[in-house]
Amino acid sequence: MKKLFLFASAAFITQTAFAQLSVAPELGFQMTNVPTKSDGEKVKANLKAGFRIGANLDLTILEQLHLQGGIFYSDKGGKTTNETLGSGTVVLESTATLNYLEIPFYLNYMTGEAGGNRFFIGAGPYIGYCLGGKTKYKNPITGQDESVTLKVGTDKTNDNIKPLDMGININVGYMLSNNFYARAQYGIGLTNNMPSGNKDNSEKNAGFAISIGYNFGL
Asked: Coil, helix or strand for 2?
């Protein structure tokens, strides 16, 4: 038993010593929306184009198993129809732009060997903090484009969006032997972002992204 314990300890120490750490700047294009419910009814939600930029820190646990954590600026939001603002103005279509600082985590499985061309697939949670946002719309009476600045906070009366958002990302990608890679990602928010929300009134983030990046070994 003692020999087995010593062997396992030596194997763990050896594996840890050869664990590789790398940083990967990444830039992506994404299409997002905000699935919404109002009084129990789903509100039509359309996709909005945006971008995400940031970097991941990649830790090789095993040759095929990688743990990633990153920090990103993410331009989210979506388009909705038949929305009524607090002023009583009925908006036929509006576009919400939500700016987030996000920290995603992934546990990825990579095929092949280090230094070669490799597929990868994985999933993990993310946490985001809303930095602010705006809703743009065309006033149906005047025909003019107008905008409303969204208030970030938890006050059920005065605020429009909660600061914290949490959800899950699923990703798949391909890394070339020269360390360039491409990633496709789908994310779904799990939290209701309405300060006054409930099960019948909710707003959540969702969307997919395509990114490219480069993996620098440290």
From this structure: helix
CA distances from 108 to 58, 81, 111, 196 (A): 10, 38, 10, 37
pTM, two decimal places? 0.83
CB count in 10 Å sphere of residue 140? 11
CA distance 182 to 119: 10
Q: With residue 129 as reference, give the H or E element that holds it.
A: strand 118-138
Calculate the alpha carbon distances from 86 to 13, 89, 108, 169 in Å: 61, 7, 45, 33
> Domain range holding 186?
20-217
What is residue 44's predicted lDDT score, i.e. its pLDDT? 80
Confidence of residue 84 (pLDDT cuts 50, 70, 90): low
* Residue 158 forms part of a structural domain: yes
Q: How many domains does the chain have?
A: 1
Q: For residue 124, give the CATH number of its domain.
A: 2.40.160.20
Question: Is 14 a member of any domain?
Answer: no
Contacts of 23 (CB under 8 A, 6+ apart): 55, 56, 57, 58, 215, 216, 218
